[in-house]
Amino acid sequence: RYRNVHQKLAVSISRYYDKEDITFHELSPDFIQAFDIYLKTEERLCRNTIVRYMKCFKKITNMAIAKEWMRKDPFYGYRSFFPAMNCRPS
Protein backbone atom coordinates (compact mmCIF):
# COMPACT_ATOMS: atom_id res chain seq x y z
CA ARG A 1 0.00 0.00 0.00
CA TYR A 2 2.79 2.44 0.87
CA ARG A 3 4.47 1.76 -2.49
CA ASN A 4 1.23 2.63 -4.26
CA VAL A 5 0.91 5.84 -2.26
CA HIS A 6 4.53 6.70 -3.10
CA GLN A 7 3.94 6.14 -6.82
CA LYS A 8 0.78 8.25 -6.85
CA LEU A 9 2.48 10.98 -4.81
CA ALA A 10 5.40 11.09 -7.25
CA VAL A 11 3.04 11.77 -10.14
CA SER A 12 0.99 14.28 -8.18
CA ILE A 13 4.09 16.15 -6.94
CA SER A 14 5.48 16.44 -10.45
CA ARG A 15 2.17 17.87 -11.68
CA TYR A 16 1.47 20.18 -8.74
CA TYR A 17 4.96 21.49 -7.99
CA ASP A 18 6.55 20.89 -11.41
CA LYS A 19 9.46 19.16 -9.62
CA GLU A 20 10.60 15.58 -9.24
CA ASP A 21 10.71 15.72 -5.46
CA ILE A 22 9.99 18.11 -2.59
CA THR A 23 10.92 18.45 1.07
CA PHE A 24 8.49 17.91 3.92
CA HIS A 25 8.49 21.68 4.54
CA GLU A 26 7.01 22.24 1.09
CA LEU A 27 3.92 20.12 1.79
CA SER A 28 0.85 22.29 2.17
CA PRO A 29 -2.86 21.82 2.85
CA ASP A 30 -3.48 22.89 -0.76
CA PHE A 31 -1.31 20.04 -2.00
CA ILE A 32 -3.20 17.57 0.23
CA GLN A 33 -6.47 18.69 -1.37
CA ALA A 34 -4.91 18.54 -4.84
CA PHE A 35 -3.67 15.01 -4.16
CA ASP A 36 -7.15 13.95 -3.01
CA ILE A 37 -8.67 15.43 -6.18
CA TYR A 38 -6.00 13.74 -8.32
CA LEU A 39 -6.84 10.35 -6.79
CA LYS A 40 -10.54 10.91 -7.46
CA THR A 41 -10.39 12.34 -10.94
CA GLU A 42 -7.23 11.09 -12.64
CA GLU A 43 -6.84 7.74 -10.92
CA ARG A 44 -10.61 7.23 -10.51
CA LEU A 45 -10.16 5.45 -7.20
CA CYS A 46 -13.03 4.51 -4.89
CA ARG A 47 -13.64 6.64 -1.81
CA ASN A 48 -12.53 3.82 0.53
CA THR A 49 -9.27 3.38 -1.38
CA ILE A 50 -8.60 7.11 -1.23
CA VAL A 51 -9.22 7.09 2.53
CA ARG A 52 -6.69 4.25 2.94
CA TYR A 53 -4.13 6.09 0.80
CA MET A 54 -4.60 9.30 2.76
CA LYS A 55 -4.23 7.41 6.06
CA CYS A 56 -0.87 6.05 4.87
CA PHE A 57 0.19 9.51 3.75
CA LYS A 58 -0.90 11.02 7.09
CA LYS A 59 1.12 8.40 8.99
CA ILE A 60 4.19 9.48 7.05
CA THR A 61 3.61 13.17 7.77
CA ASN A 62 2.93 12.44 11.45
CA MET A 63 6.25 10.60 11.64
CA ALA A 64 7.97 13.59 10.01
CA ILE A 65 6.36 15.94 12.56
CA ALA A 66 7.44 13.66 15.43
CA LYS A 67 11.02 13.66 14.12
CA GLU A 68 10.83 17.45 13.68
CA TRP A 69 11.38 17.23 9.92
CA MET A 70 8.39 19.53 9.52
CA ARG A 71 6.70 22.04 11.79
CA LYS A 72 3.10 22.17 10.63
CA ASP A 73 0.66 19.40 9.87
CA PRO A 74 -0.36 19.73 6.20
CA PHE A 75 -3.45 17.64 6.98
CA TYR A 76 -4.71 20.24 9.46
CA GLY A 77 -8.22 21.10 8.30
CA TYR A 78 -8.17 18.45 5.57
CA ARG A 79 -11.59 17.32 4.62
CA SER A 80 -12.82 15.65 1.52
CA PHE A 81 -15.34 17.94 -0.14
CA PHE A 82 -16.38 15.71 -3.00
CA PRO A 83 -19.11 13.08 -2.80
CA ALA A 84 -18.23 9.45 -3.32
CA MET A 85 -17.90 8.46 -6.94
CA ASN A 86 -18.21 5.13 -8.60
CA CYS A 87 -15.20 2.88 -8.74
CA ARG A 88 -13.54 2.29 -12.05
CA PRO A 89 -15.17 -0.58 -13.90
CA SER A 90 -13.74 -4.03 -13.39
**Average of pLDDT:** 88
Broad structural category:
mainly alpha
Calculate the terminal CA-CA distance, rounded to whole Å: 20 Å
Number of strands: 0
Shape: globular
Helix content: 40-55%
Tally of helical runs: 3
Element order: H for helix, E for strand: HHH
CA-atom Rg in angstroms: 13 Å
Major sheet: size, sense and barrel closure? none
**Stretches with pLDDT under 50, minimum 5 residues:** none
The percent range for strand residues is under 5%
Describe the secondary structure blueprint for this structure.
Elements (H helix, E strand, L loop, with lengths): L1 H16 L11 H13 L5 H20 L24
Structure in a nutshell:
With 90 residues, this protein is an all-alpha fold.
Q: What are the salient characteristics of this protein?
A:
90 residues; 54% helix
Structural notes for this entry:
Helix 1 crosses helix 2. The two termini are 20 Å apart. 54% of the residues lie in helices and 0% in strands. The protein has 90 residues and is mainly alpha-helical.
